[in-house]
Amino acid sequence: MLPEVNKILYCTDLSKNASYAFKYAVYLARQTGAEIHILKVVEELSSDERLTLQSYILNQNSREEFLHQRLNHARDQLQQRLDHFWEVIAPQEQAMRSKIIGCEVVEGYPTQTILKRSKELDCDLIVMGAHEKGWFHTLLGSVAKNVLRESRIPTLIVPRPEKVVTTKQATQKH
């Protein structure tokens, strides 16, 4: 017998497809009664990036403020995306908002952070979106591949739709 899905870890990179993948997380939560924890990982700066930052921002407090603002910016973007999602979702789906039990933005290495948080939160399923093609997205796409390969719980990688689907259009389909 397959284990029940009681807690879903939805991971977002705030891309267009991430909103589409979130729709799947909400749908699965509705079908299973699961709760959803939202995670956005802001990738840690490499040692070269930190060295560059130190070269251009000599003041330690200013550097720390810059790093803090990176996380705040990601939090603001995530909140805007969630607000938009809930604004355009069908009225009968609004009750699913109560299934969101946590929403966090953390700095770390994406694959390791996603796997670690899924264990700490005792999640039964990871949901994340696939990425568009291109150099930048190829790098990011490796996160989904690595999570899929290393995860010990089921992981759903939602492919990007054939055409761009607005959240409202996608909601009306289900």
TrEMBL record:
Ranges for domain UspA: 6-159
InterPro entries: Rossmann-like_a/b/a_fold, Universal_stress_UspA, UspA
Organism, scientific name: Oceanisphaera sediminis
Gene3D superfamilies attached to this UniProt entry: HUPs
UniProt superkingdom: Bacteria
Protein name in UniProt: UspA domain-containing protein
PANTHER family: STRESS RESPONSE PROTEIN NHAX, UNIVERSAL STRESS PROTEIN UP12
Annotated family: Belongs to the universal stress protein A family.
